[in-house]
Design goal:
55% helix, mainly alpha, 11 helices, 334 residues, two-stranded antiparallel ribbon
Length: 334
Amino acid sequence: MAPWTGAELLALSPLRALWLALAAAFLLALLLQLVPPGLFPGYAFFQDLIRYGKTKLGGVPRPAACRAFDVPKRYFSHFYVIAVLWNGFLLWFLVQSLFLGVPFPNWLHALLRILGAAQFQGGELALSAFLVLLFLWLHSARRLFECLYVSVFSNAVINVVQYCFGLVYYVLVGLTVLSQVPMDGRNGEWPLPYHRPREGWSSVYVIGKNVLMQARWFHILGMVMFIWSSAHQYKCHVILGNLRRNKAGIVIHCNHRIPFGDWFEYVSSPNYLAELMIYISMAVTFGFYNTTWWLVVTYVFFSQALSAFLSHKFYKSQFVSYPKHRRAFLPFLF
């Protein structure tokens, strides 16, 4: 685990620039919620673009043109279908490289280079990237299960731009993890002659003969945090789903009600807070010092904070008895 350096912070690869731009865009969107509606043109279109689900109901009147670009919110499940398939695909390549010495194919290596993957020399990075990609796949699989069997979707909608962004996001985040794997296409070690890369292929450079020997304390801490955060997010989604079911588990309505229990006692959107904690657990697994992944965490923070803020406003506008001590996103703070 190597500390940050000034040179690393200044090295703005395409991936880092993209995540930084996304974080800045969502921070700006969050700050614009404090601006009076009449101060800038296109306010209604802007609000319609950033809102989804129930928050579209509590916002400004929707322009008729926006309704033409609505897709059902239940299409959220498509995000996780893509995530499970794509990140499972990347995980398979990584497992073969780390444990069997099979190199990455040319197209994948070229794509990672375009995105700005560097030649790392950190001994723990290979295991860290494997664990984070595994966590990402498990997270996607659990969320797909929840979309299909736990959540109860109403007729709420999302914008088609949000839908397309969600599909691209899970492809991009998997590539971001894989770009952190130490690679060396010139002098990698191949345990068997037939594992030697063909021309145009790249091996994964791994320090040491056994990847598991790279295990460090922060890998364990990151795993514990991931399991803890995932359990709370699952519990929150169960609470939300049960608001629309009877005791027999049958869906009886699609109305909005005030949720109680678990982290709902502190914030309006604990599922968003748990999402942030899941990504922080991955940053811990990377050893705390991975600049690229902290930019991902920064984006997740502002995007989830925006969604939580809009959700909090919706609850307060719909329920006069809404608990006054609850915050939107961060307990006791925001």
